[in-house]
Amino acid sequence: MRRALASLMAAGLMLAACDRPHEPGSEEGQAVVARTSESELPAWLSPTDGTDPARWLAGREVGYPLPTGAEPVRALQEALTEAKAGFIEDPRMIANRTAQLGQMLAEIGKTERYALLLTGFSAVAARRGRHKSLYGEMCQHYFNTRARGVDHAAALALLAERFAPGLGTGESP
Hints:
The protein is mainly alpha-helical. The protein contains 7 helices and no strands.
């Protein structure tokens, strides 16, 4: 239990750092640095990282870099494209949060495929129509639900109730 709590606290700190706004004149806001190495993956995608989020996420899931045309990369490109329509965050942030959620789930013995998480959350977000959802918030609710022992399908059903138009969280109408 302490390990899960420590993971949640670390995750919160990482999520807060991810959403930090760019400060004028900071080096971060100056240039995009492309990291497309075929032999290594950055720990996380920074705001200035040019790595394809789908390729990075697929590599994180299998534990080693994959070439751009690999099937897992294509599947995650499709899933991220679908997610982009329903969430406020950009694909880089969605990829980071998906990897983070995957780690947290693995720590409690509930490993999930990243594409399955993305498509499930996108289906929930699509029900909101034009009102976009907060992906990070959905990840946190999903994790909490799964940590209570609820299976994947039931956790998505609970998310659908929570994020229903007019009832859920996210951007207000």
